[in-house]
Amino acid sequence: GAVVSQHPSWVICKSGTSVKIECRSLDFQATTMFWYRQFPKQSLMLMATSNEGSKATYEQGVEKDKFLINHASLTLSTLTVTSAHPEDSSFYICSAREALGREAYEQYFGPGTRLTVT
Amino acid sequence: GESVGLHLPTLSVQEGDNSIINCAYSNSASDYFIWYKQESGKGPQFIIDIRSNMDKRQGQRVTVLLNKTVKHLSLQIAATQPGDSAVYFCAELVPSWADSWGKLQFGAGTQVVVTP
User: Fold this and answer.
1) Buried b (16+ CB within 10 A) or exposed e, A13-36
2) Of A61, A113, B18, B109, which has fewest CB within 10 angstroms of its CB?
3) Angle at the Cα of B40 (from A77 to B81), degrees rounded to 5?
4) Which residues contact B105 (CB under 8 A, 6 or more apart)?
């Protein structure tokens, strides 16, 4: 089956610093990748949708200058949290959708990255 | 500031019993629905899906029911096992101007606790 990996699985950073999270589709090409944020005991909230080679589309209320998304290839998307603050501490989950050609909708989720900002 | 802590609805089930998890979805234009299982500290895992032209679909030990009239989705797990303990989310594929496929919108989730 299709596998999506994230790196790192957890990270602790100091307030004011930036941290980058990578999302890779390991055995398929993903024209579209998604970034979600999940706070404890809450649901997944879509932050942004990124298409390979173009700018990401951010959901309402998500600061594009704070959460920088790059989708430079069909297998890699990165999320950079800039000037992180304790309220950015969360579980960040990426998801990848397989390239066109499939009849069924296929969206695969990564294992998540736990970010703690101190 | 700090986010207010929320408590997921919890369903306690005895091992061997059947579980029924309910979900109300929001968009009458949604035409595809998925149930996910999420274990602590992990990403969501696909369980079963259903399209809006169906009202029931069965998998291995799981059944999804869709009632479009009242925008309700349910997941039935037969003979619940300890390994079924997790948070279960329904998700609907909502039409989006930015994406021809639409975007997945997740429900609030239900914590399932299986007791021996």
Assistant:
1) beeeeebebbbbbeebebbbbbbb
2) A61
3) 125
4) A46, B26, B27, B30, B91, B92, B93, B94
The span from the CA of A94 to the CA of A48, in Å, is 10
Instruction: Tell me if chain A has a CB within 8 Å of the CB of B116.
Output: no
Q: What is the tens place of the pLDDT at every residue in B22-69?
A: 999 999 999 999 999 999 999 999 999 999 999 999 999 999 999 999
Are the beta carbons of A105 and B105 separated by less than 8 Å? no
Least CA distance to A91: which residue of chain B? B41
Segment B10-32 mean pLDDT: 95
Residue of B89, B104, B105, B113 to mutate, testing the A interface (most A Cβ within 10 Å of its Cβ): B104
In single-letter form, the type of residue at position A94 comes to C
Question: What confidence score (pLDDT) does residue B98 get?
Answer: 74
| Residues whose CB is less than 8 angstroms from the CB of residue A103 and which lie 6 or more positions away in sequence, other chains included | none
Which amino acid is residue A97, in one-letter code? Answer: R
User: B16: Cβ–Cβ under 8 A, 6 or more apart, which residues?
Assistant: B79, B80
High-pLDDT (> 90) share of chain B, %: 83
In this structure, are strands A10-13 and A113-117 parallel, antiparallel, or unpaired?
Answer: parallel
pLDDT of residue B3: 37
Residue in B with minimal Cα distance to A37: B43
Residue B102 and residue A38: Cα distance in Å, rounded?
20
